[in-house]
Amino acid sequence: MTKADAAVKTAKRRRKGSQFSGRDRTVFTLMVAVPTFFHVMLVWVPTLASIVFSFTDWKGFRFSDLNFVGFLNYQQIFTVFEKDFFQGVINNLTLLVFLFLGPTVLGMFLAYLLDKELKGGRIYQSIFYTPVVLSLAVVGFIWQSVMYSTENGLATELFGAGGEVNWLGDQSFLIPFSDNYGISKNFIAILIAIAWRHTGYIMVLYLAGMKSVDQALRESAALDGCNEWQAFRHVLFPTLKPINVVVAVITVIEALRAFDIIYVLNTPRRTQVLSILTTNNLLGEGGGNVGRGSAYAVLLFLLCIGFVIWYVTNHYRNSEFSK
Asked: CA 107 to CA 77: how far, in whole Å?
């Protein structure tokens, strides 16, 4: 290597260093450090604190009253409060299966129809998507006062046969698993309210995915004589794999963290989910039991983090294969 070549390389290294020095380096550091600080303080510090508190009997007032009790809170959840816990798990799993078989399938079907460029498609898309822009609390109030009103709600007028129907108060099991566990009728009513909002969200995700599919693939399928179902199954659906993964993760997390609508509907009996049990223990009368509430939160966190790890692992595995 000549001296001239060495000088050129040295100059290039200096230019690269000079492009990211001084004020730029300070700005970059702040852009990374500030969001990281807030993420750690607002997400991971409370998460780790909940794990620590789950091994205590703290009531939430003075730290001097904090005593470590080992696994006592977890033991009580699985013994003393087992009815609440296992009914909450059943409701969360029921919501998970329902979201996959109901709103997910319906949202995909609506996206497929709208992808056909139907007349008035934008109007239909706006109508279906409107519930998504509403907060879950507002959705809960709408269904409580407009749909499920005992005397003059829309559901009562349509299916009440002229009488009053207590949609949110009927705690009898529609699908019993035993004398103490099952899927109650009032929880089914809540599922319908949740589906009303979730369907539009899934529809938008799948519609965006379908719009990005190469039109040449569909034309090739048509030339090969594929009907609508065959073209969807063998051509369109396989290209939506990234969307399917995102929808799966979102649906699972949505089912596990469900809270707002059920809480707004006054949490009728036998409709509790794990997030409701966590809140009720943390904010109970007299200050609640932070230790037991944190134990519920840790169990819910463990259920969620498993699916998050699966998603991240799947994402990076696909990234490695695509290189």
From this structure: 37
Q: Assign 3-class secondary structure to the chain.
A: CCHHHHHHHHHHHHHHHHHCCCHHHHHHHHHHHHHHHHHHHHHHHHHHHHHHHCCECCCCCCHHHCCECCCHHHHHHHCCCHHHHHHHHHHHHHHHHHHHHHHHHHHHHHHHHHCCCCCCHHHHHHHHHHHHHCCHHHHHHHHHHHHCCCCCCHHHHHHCCCCCCCCCCCCCEEEECCCCCEEEHHHHHHHHHHHHHHHHHHHHHHHHHHHCCCHHHHHHHHHCCCCHHHHHHHHHHHHCHHHHHHHHHHHHHHHHCCCHHHHHCCCCCCCCCHHHHHHHHHCCHHHCCHHHHHHHHHHHHHHHHHHHHHHHHHHHHHHHHHC
Structural domain count, the chain: 2
Q: Do 26 and 99 sit in the same domain of this protein?
A: no
In a domain, 181, yes or no: yes
Task: Please indicate, yes or no, whether residues 29 and 111 belong to a single structural domain of this protein.
Answer: no
Residue 321 lies in a domain: no
106 pLDDT more than 90? yes
Domain match, 93 and 42 both: no
Phi first, then psi: what are they for 174, rounded to 5°?
A: -80, -40
Whether residue 99 has pLDDT greater than 90: yes
What is the token pair recorded at 69? 């009790």
| Structural domain containing residue 33 | 3-46
Model confidence pLDDT, tens digit, residues 227-279: 888 888 888 888 888 888 888 888 888 888 888 888 888 777 888 898 888 88
How far apart, in whole angstroms, are the C-alpha atoms of residue 172 and residue 265?
17
